[in-house]
Amino acid sequence: MKKKWPPSAKKNNSAEKVKDTSHYKAQYIQSFVSKWDELIDWETRAKSEGSFFIDILKQHGAQKVLDVATGTGFHSIGLRQAGFDVVSADGSPEMLAQAFANGRDYGLILQTVQADWRWLNRNIDGKFDAVICLGNSFTHLFSERDRRKVLAEFYAALKHDGILILDQRNYDAIMDVGFSSKHIYYYCGENIKAEPEYVDDTLARFRYEFPDQSVYHLNMFPLRKNYTRQLMLEVGFQRIKTYGDFQETYHQEEQDFFIHVAEKSYDSKLSENNTMDYSPTVNTAREYYNSDSADNFYATMWGGEDIHIGIYQSENESVFDASRRTVEKIASLLNLSKDSKVLDIGSGYGGGARYLAKTYGCRVHF
How far is CA 237 from CA 81, 117, 178, 317, 319, in A? Predict the structure, then answer.
């Protein structure tokens, strides 16, 4: 039975409608963190998840995993025990300290890194086969700009064929029907209440009450499933498979959580029937730049060397000359030498890359 929250839940009794991405730092206080393992109940949660995440990672050949929402270490420790190479990151130093302590209890030394997801690759080096963002953690991001930035950081942290595994509560059901929970996934602790105290289209404020009558709150953004999927596609992920409570087939309103598995891998051999696997932006760009008309246009109008806008000295100057001047001007600002390494991510016909390599002797990837 679906349980609708009482009318009072629609009121802001706590007067704390804080909608800020960084607010979680003030909510994950030490006393709450010390009760987190009691809330999730590791043994019961392990039984409910089974080998789901391990199986997904193995299916995609993943070995090196970045756990960006480590919490108290439940998944990081489980994956380490299963033989994966795991880096454990979190924005909360209290959570990371507890995760490290939990790891030692299992005879493991976790590789922990405190990192704000919005600048993830500034704090964590290397590329990973998989990034996992679990525990409904992505919903701590309140602005769409932050969500897009974070997904782009996740994408950049992955190898070319890597995967992102990201989960979320079923906020669609919470907002459209009412809150209910089977209490067998994620938050499995006994005699603990975890329910929404306030819900609207931009805020889900959850209240956590423990047997000792201590109460804590978390403010989260109520992500709808299809919105999350669309964001991942628009950032660049190519294929996304969504599970409901670890099952491939499900009735949307009956699930407590959704798990998205998004692939970074780009398969240029997909048939036209599979173009819907790509975002509308990617489809439009592919169709345009792969067309003969676009190739003829740039070869004729731009001269076939550069295909960007130029810096003109006179109204009669050719596009070719003005475009080359743009390359020269930009290059003069970069302080390049033969020891420099340059990545040209919009190389077109490669005119700019060839100019840099020839003029400065630097190594250019394009």
Answer: 29, 18, 31, 42, 35
Q: DSSP E strands: which ranges in the chain? A: 64-67, 85-90, 111-114, 128-133, 158-169, 193-200, 203-209, 215-220, 239-244, 257-263, 341-343, 363-365
The Cα-based distances of 299 to 59, 306, 312, 319, 360 in angstroms read 44, 9, 19, 11, 26
> How do residues 113-140 score in pLDDT, each as one tens digit?
999 999 999 999 999 999 999 999 999 9
- 171 Cβ neighbours under 8 A, 6+ residues apart: 139, 204, 222, 223, 224, 225
Q: State pTM to two decimals.
A: 0.71
| DSSP string covering 91-110 | S-HHHHHHHHHHHHHTT---
- Contact (CB, 8 A) for 124 and 66: yes
**pLDDT, tens digit (0-9, with 9 covering 90-100), for 219-259:** 999 999 999 999 999 999 999 999 998 888 777 777 889 99
